[in-house]
Structure formats: structure tokens, C-alpha cells
Write a structure and sequence with these properties.
Keywords: Transferase. The protein has 180 residues and is of the alpha+beta class. Helices cover 28% and strands 31% of the residues. The protein has five helices and seven strands. Bound molecules: coenzyme A.
Length: 180
């Protein structure tokens, strides 16, 4: 396995590279699967990597860019993750292996964040398995929660990891059967 690391995306230095990354690769499980260069630039302007409560990093494998991770709501208790690997970097274990690196970075850099959450479409098997493999816990299954253009909505599935669990080396389960 390659050496994985994160490198903060710097604006405006990295703007063109970010736009190229987002508009070159296809993201079949995102609401917008093929972002155009204009879409990508609009996301930058909207603050996806450096807006309030936002932070974006390149994912590097042996020093080469293989993906982008963006985080939002970092001023809240619970932050949100969006991880996107380049097409030829997928399915090689990078997603599962980089999640703990991201968790360490976020909990280290943003002391108020207690929890990191990710939502993905029910048929995004790679993301769901990567979350599981990295110790994230499924917390919600929003039936018909993910609109699909020209088709029926799919479920949106939410996974999360707690700072307290990472610190104590435990995994707190979700109390599904807690109704009296
Ligand atoms: C989702 C993503 C980050 C996962 O990272 P990855 O490096 O491809 O995943 P991994 O290689 O670590 O594989 C994780 C698991 O999924 C499985 N898997 C990988 N690709 C798969 C595929 N196309 N179909 C089914 N299973 C797959 C692996 O076998 C592995 O399973 P295991 O833990 O049982 O061995 C990456 O595929 C990606 O960037 N996809 C496009 C963007 C995206 O959908 N991001 C999610 C945003 S929430």
C-alpha cells in the first residue's frame, strides 16, 4: 500500500488543479455525477475548500494527488465529509486506508468537532464498505432520501465516527432497540 497523506488545498494557487480534478473524473453516486469546470469553479467560489467551517485537502499517495476530501460544518459539533478519488485510484484500498488519516487530521485541527459524518447513496458499495472497514458506524438509513434524476429516489445512508471512540479505542453502538 502507498504512503497516504493529506495536503491542504491552497487558494488561489490550487484553483485550476481543483477545477480540473472535479471536472475530469466522473462521480456516479453524487447528485451531480459529471461536474463541469463551471460547476467546480462555482463550488470553489462558494467556499467548499476555504469558506467558513470548510476545509479541503488533496489526498496524496506516495506524494501524488489521487483524490480530494472536503469537509464542512467544522465550526459545529458534527462535521461532514465528502471524499472523491480519481477514477484510476478507486478500488485499490485507498479510500478505506485514508479515512483514518482524515479522522486524525480533522480531530487534531478542529478541537470543537466531536463527530465526523458521511452520507452516501445506498448503492455506493465501495464508500459504505470503506466507512465500515475504517470503523465508522451506520447511524441512519434515510429511505428515498437521495433524489435520482429520471428515476425513483434511493436511500441515503449515514455513517459516523466519534472523537470519544477514537480516543478510547472503542466503538459505541447505536441503540436501535431503545423504545420502551
Ligand atoms: C467511494 C471511494 C472513496 C471508496 O474508496 P476506494 O479506494 O475505491 O475503496 P476501497 O478500495 O478502499 O474499497 C472499500 C471496499 O469496497 C469494495 N469495493 C471497492 N470498489 C467497489 C466497487 N466498485 N463495487 C463494489 N465494491 C467495491 C472493496 O472490495 C472493499 O471491500 P472490503 O472492505 O470488503 O474489502 C472511491 O471509490 C471514490 O472516490 N468513488 C467516487 C466518489 C464517491 O462516490 N465518493 C463518496 C462520497 S460520500
Amino acid at each position: 500500500m502507498s504512503q497516504l497523506s493529506l495536503q491542504p488545498i491552497e487558494r488561489p494557487r490550487d484553483d485550476d488543479a481543483f477545477v480540473e480534478f472535479l471536472s475530469t473524473h466522473e462521480f456516479p453516486f453524487h447528485v451531480r455525477p459529471r461536474p463541469t469546470a463551471e460547476d467546480a469553479r462555482a463550488r470553489l467560489v462558494a467556499g467548499v475548500v476555504d469558506g467558513p467551517g470548510a476545509f479541503g485537502c488533496w489526498v496524496l499517495a506516495d506524494g501524488e494527488v489521487v483524490g480530494v476530501v472536503t469537509l464542512e460544518d467544522l465550526e459545529d459539533d458534527a462535521a461532514l465529509i465528502d471524499l472523491r478519488l480519481a477514477k484510476d485510484a478507486r478500488g485499490r484500498g485507498i479510500g478505506s486506508a485514508v479515512l483514518p488519516v482524515i479522522v486524525t487530521e480533522v480531530f487534531g485541527r478542529f478541537p470543537s468537532v466531536r463527530k465526523l459524518e458521511g452520507q452516501t447513496r445506498e448503492d455506493n458499495v465501495a464508500m459504505r464498505r470503506a466507512f465500515r472497514r475504517a470503523g465508522w458506524v451506520k447511524e441512519a438509513h434515510y429511505r428515498e432520501g437521495w433524489p435520482v434524476s429520471g428515476g425513483l429516489p434511493l436511500a441515503s445512508v449515514a455513517y459516523a465516527i466519534l472523537r470519544s471512540d477514537v480516543q478510547s479505542g472503542t466503538t459505541t453502538p447505536v441503540p436501535w432497540d431503545d423504545e420502551p
